[in-house]
Design goal:
The complex is a heterodimer. Chain A is mainly α. Chain A has nine helices and no strands. Chain A has one domain. Chain B is an all-alpha fold.
């Protein structure tokens, strides 16, 4: 139970993917103009992160390490993620066309999202700062991916709300667009700095 | 020769991948707190981008159009794997300071973007020049912002201690976001100023010619 709480707090608040690790900034800046699209993108990214970790972690631990082909991890992982995204797109298209209409345009973008490749690489490294003495296994890895994705979604939604308000003001040409979005993101990061006081 | 000059200027200034197109933001923001790792990241990207541009340009007639993106990703992932092994063996300090961002070069939008927008339509020489120019544009922007962040956030420059004055925020992602945003704004303002000055000059020239013709 302690490990579970530590993973949740660490993934969502203290080591948030956007505000601390700066993974997945492209969709964060690109798709956060409207709250509805930010929620869609966040959920899609979370789904792919969970599925990718669920597939890559066992493959790495039970196939690549015994065969001594760890050096191929980048090539393997990016291929697994690309095919997962493609498969997910086809499944959603068949099962729920309305969800596909809402999510469809964001799905192909996820392949080149740092957050997905980032989480699959991260759970293979040294996780002792998050899970403490407990030993790493598929369950913790997938849980970490799930809550990292939810933390990503949380920051996306906060950001999109702030940007919707910002649209009401007229800004000079050089500042509008990315610069003002970055300064907004900086304020969110400063707010999230408070959570570094949580000691797990 | 003029063509190469245009490619170089586009990559370095007018289409600068970091400041004008805002691509490859994750490593930029993540490594901005240290000028040394920013420079190391930039030079690694220069090498990988140039090689990937040359290889993709050489293979542009071989790769079928429908499966080009997976092919590009395999080429880039192979190059990144080589770069990672090379750095781990020869420059272990840099390898450690880049951390997870080294593997994430695979999904760096700049490399895939140049492959898709430039390398598959041009010959290898042009693609190589484009790769070097864009890579150096990225390196230049990243290093300048890294210097600003490191001086303000850590009171040091390339690891050398300067003074004890420091603002901790600038060594964290919050400061990186602010420095990046302000850099983009200043850069866009300067480029716009140049464009405006050029337009005014062209207008004046055109008007002068018109007056001469009337006379």
């Amino acid at each position: 139970m302690g490990t579970f709480i530590a993973i949740v707090l660490s993934a969502v608040l203290t080591n948030n993917f956007i505000t601390v690790k700066t993974y997945g900034i492209c969709p964060f800046l690109g798709v956060s103009k409207k709250t509805s699209s930010a929620v869609g993108m966040g959920i899609a990214v979370t789904l792919v992160m969970v599925l990718a970790t669920l597939v890559t972690y066992p493959i790495y631990t039970y196939a690549m390490i015994p065969l001594h082909i760890e050096f191929l991890e980048i090539i393997f992982f990016i291929f697994i993620i690309a095919s997962l995204v493609q498969m997910l797109e086809k499944i959603i298209q068949k099962v729920s066309p309305s969800l596909y209409g809402a999510m469809g345009i964001y799905l192909p973008l996820i392949t080149t999202n740092c957050a997905v490749l980032g989480v699959t690489e991260l759970v293979l490294g040294d996780m002792s700062s998050v899970i403490g003495a407990a030993s790493m296994n598929v369950g913790w890895a997938v849980l970490y991916a799930l809550f990292s994705g939810l933390g990503f979604t949380l920051v996306m939604v906060i950001m999109s709300g702030m940007r919707e308000k910002l649209n009401c003001y007229k800004l000079p040409k050089a500042v509008s667009g990315f610069p003002v979005a970055m300064v907004t993101a900086s304020f969110i990061c400063m707010a999230f700095m408070v959570f570094t006081y949580i000691v797990i | 020769m003029n063509k190469y000059k245009k490619i170089t200027l586009d990559g370095l200034i007018f289409q600068n991948p970091t400041l004008m197109l805002v691509l490859g933001t994750c490593p930029t923001l993540g490594l901005m707190n240290s000028a040394m790792s920013a420079l190391g990241m930039g030079l690694t990207v220069v090498v990988i981008l140039t090689l990937s541009n040359i290889i993709i340009s050489l293979l542009r007639k071989v790769i079928p159009n429908e499966v080009r993106i997976p092919c590009y990703i395999v080429i880039i992932a192979t190059l990144v794997t080589f770069a990672r092994m090379f750095l781990e063996y020869y420059l272990p300090d840099l390898h450690d300071s880049l951390g997870g961002f080294l593997a994430l070069i695979v999904v760096n939008c700049i490399i895939l973007g140049r492959a898709e927008a430039f390398a598959n339509k041009h010959n290898p020489a042009e693609a190589a020049v484009d790769g070097i120019a864009n890579g150096l544009g990225f390196t230049f922007a990243l290093t300048v912002m890294g210097i600003i962040c490191e001086v303000l956030g850590k009171g040091s420059l390339f690891g050398l201690h300067l003074w004890n004055f420091k603002i901790g925020m600038f060594a964290s992602p919050a400061g990186a976001f602010i420095v990046y945003g302000i850099s983009i704004a200043v850069f866009v303002y300067i480029i716009d100023g140049f464009e405006r000055a050029r337009r005014v000059k062209a207008n004046k020239l055109a008007r002068g010619n018109l007056l001469k013709e009337e006379a």
